[in-house]
Amino acid sequence: MSGPLLRNRWFVGSVGGTFLLLVFSIFVGFVWLPSAQDDSLFKGLLNSICSAAGVPRSWLGEASAPVTSPTKVSDVVMTPTTLDSPASDGAVGRGGTLALRCTMCHGLRGVSNSQTPTLAGQYASSIYKELRDFQSGARISAVMAPFVADLHDQDLRDLSAYYASLPRQQTANTQDLQSAPDIVATGAPMRNIPPCGSCHGRLTSKLGVPWLDSQPRDYLKTQLEAFAHGTRRNDTSAQMRNIARNMTTQEIDASVDFYSGTR
Amino acid sequence: MIYNKRLILAHFWLAFAVFGMAILLGEWQMFIRSPLSGWLRNADLYYRSVTAHGTVMGYVFPTLVAMGFGYFISEAALGQPLIGRKWAWAGYFMIIIGTIAAVVPVAMGLDSVLYTFYPPMIGNAFYYIGVVLVVVGSWVWVALMGVNLYVWKRAHPGASVPLAMFANVAGAYLWGWTAVGAALELLFQILPVALGFATTINAGLSRVLFSWTLHAIVYFWLMPAYIAFYTIVPRAIGGRLYSDSMARISFALFLVFAMPIGIHHLFADPEVGAGFKVVHSIFTAMVAVPTLLTVFTICASVEIAARLRGGKGLFGWVKALPWANPQMLTLALSFVMLGFGGAGGLINMSYQLDSTIHNTQWVTGHFHLIFGGAIVIMYFALAYDLWPHLTGRALLNLRLVHWQLWLWFIGMIVLTFPWHYAGLLGMPRRMAFYDYTAPGMFAEGVSVVMSTIGGALLVVSAALFITVLVRNHSAARVDPEPFTFSRAVHEPVSLPWALNGLGLWLGLMIALTITNYGFPIVQLMMTPEGRVPPVFVGGKP
Question: Is A30's Cβ below 8 Å from some Cβ in B?
Answer without folding.
Answer: yes
